């Protein structure tokens, strides 16, 4: 259990007294967990820019169609159709509540014309659909839900079948020594001022025998109230070489690993390039791009 958790009972009690005083409920009670998640975790503009740049470099043409597997509130789909008048997107997720939140909050920020270029499928990602797409993305480590080689290869085979001949799949991966520690919570302030809140990424457990790990997201507000473990993930901690081997087994012809370049002070530059060798940082994020 992390140090943050051991402080929880005292702060929760304090938050309740705020609630009684104002009569409006705590900030946690009034918060929207999906909005907090989007503000803390997602960078759809960056994803769209990255997909576009990599695809153009590999295929020397503009990509038009995107499938966002594990799309959640499908913010990448929305940014994708906004980025070009000919672009179409398909969002795939099992969870109707999450998709519905996206319809009410993300789709409504698109014009009707843009929204008309987004198709949402409430289904398992392991379903073949038509038409095939130029880019299939699976972000925020979502494919780690598949815990065996058999399950992951099956998913990759179907993902490959959902791609055009000139198609690429993009996934993100995390790793580094710090990721194997238990009871570690990474804390960040998301916004300053009254509407500010904190994001806690808790690495609760890691089992070295199975490589299974549990992670939780908690949001903490200025009145000390919390949306405790608002999101939870129970994943297999896959490594880059395992994923590349399984992609090949599933029929992908080639895979590339994109690593963020650093400047001379060792700071991130925001520029990602293909690499076969990278520094062993205690905590890193990389993209895997697989070509059909
Ligand atoms: C970690 S969240 C990622 C959401 C979003 N892609 C993002 O980047 O923030 C994982 C999502 O995958 C969905 N999911 C889990 N298993 C699935 C499956 N087999 N098929 C479709 N969706 C699935 C969950 O409902 C959830 O919305």
Question: Quick recap of the structure?
Answer:
The protein is 32% helix and 33% strand. The protein contains ten helices and twelve strands. Strand 8 (212-221) and strand 9 (226-236) form a beta hairpin.
What does this structure look like?
With 292 residues, this protein is of the alpha/beta class. The chain has 2 domains: 3-12 and 26-31 and 177-236, no CATH class; 41-175 and 239-291, Vaccinia Virus protein VP39 (Rossmann fold). The protein has 10 helices and 12 strands. It has helices at 3-6, 8-22, 27-30, 33-41, 44-59, 75-83, 96-105, 112-115, 149-161, 240-249, and strands at residues 65-69, 88-93, 118-122, 133-138, 163-175, 184-189, 197-207, 212-221, 226-236, 254-262, 268-274, 284-291. The relative contact order is 0.15. The site of S-adenosylmethionine (SAM) has 17 residues, from strand 2.
Large-scale geometry? globular
How many β-strand stretches?
A: 12
CATH class of the largest domain: Alpha Beta
* Mean pLDDT value: 91
List keywords for this structure.
four-stranded antiparallel sheet; 292 residues; Rossmann fold; eight-stranded mixed sheet; alpha/beta
Element layout with pairings:
Blueprint: H1 3-6, H2 8-22, H3 27-30, H4 33-41, H5 44-59, E1 65-69, H6 75-83, E2 88-93, H7 96-105, H8 112-115, E3 118-122, E4 133-138, H9 149-161, E5 163-175, E6 184-189, E7 197-207, E8 212-221, E9 226-236, H10 240-249, E10 254-262, E11 268-274, E12 284-291
Parallel strand pairs: 1-2, 1-4, 2-3, 4-5
Antiparallel strand pairs: 5-12, 6-7, 7-8, 8-9, 10-11, 10-12
Helix pairs in contact: 5-6
This protein binds S-adenosylmethionine.
């Amino acid at each position: 259990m992390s140090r943050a958790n051991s402080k929880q009972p005292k702060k929760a009690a304090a938050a309740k007294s705020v609630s009684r005083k104002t009569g409006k409920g705590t900030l946690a009670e009034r918060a929207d967990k999906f909005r907090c998640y989007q503000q803390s975790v997602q960078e759809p503009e960056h994803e769209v820019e990255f997909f576009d740049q990599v695809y153009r470099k590999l295929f020397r043409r503009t990509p038009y169609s995107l499938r966002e597997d594990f799309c959640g509130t499908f913010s990448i789909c929305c940014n994708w159709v906004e980025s070009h008048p000919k672009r179409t997107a398909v969002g795939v997720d099992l969870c109707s509540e999450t998709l519905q939140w996206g319809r009410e909050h993300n789709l409504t920020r698109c014009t009707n014309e843009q929204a008309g270029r987004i198709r949402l499928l409430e289904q398992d990602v392991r379903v073949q659909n038509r038409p095939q797409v130029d880019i299939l993305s699976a972000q925020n480590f979502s494919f780690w839900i598949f815990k065996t080689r058999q399950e992951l290869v099956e998913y990759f085979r179907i993902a490959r079948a959902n791609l055009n001949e000139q198609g690429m799949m993009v996934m993100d991966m995390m790793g580094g020594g710090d990721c194997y520690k238990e009871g570690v919570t990474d804390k960040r302030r998301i916004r300053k001022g009254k509407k500010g809140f904190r994001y806690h990424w808790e690495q609760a457990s890691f089992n070295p025998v199975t490589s299974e790990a549990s992670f939780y997201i908690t949001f903490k507000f200025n009145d000390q109230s919390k949306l405790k473990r608002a999101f939870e993930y129970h994943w297999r901690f896959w490594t880059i070489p395992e994923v590349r081997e399984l992609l090949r087994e599933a029929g992908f012809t080639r895979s590339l690993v994109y690593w963020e370049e650093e400047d001379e002070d060792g700071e991130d530059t925001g520029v990602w390039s293909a690499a076969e060798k990278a520094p062993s940082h205690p905590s890193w994020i990389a993209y895997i791009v697989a070509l059909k």
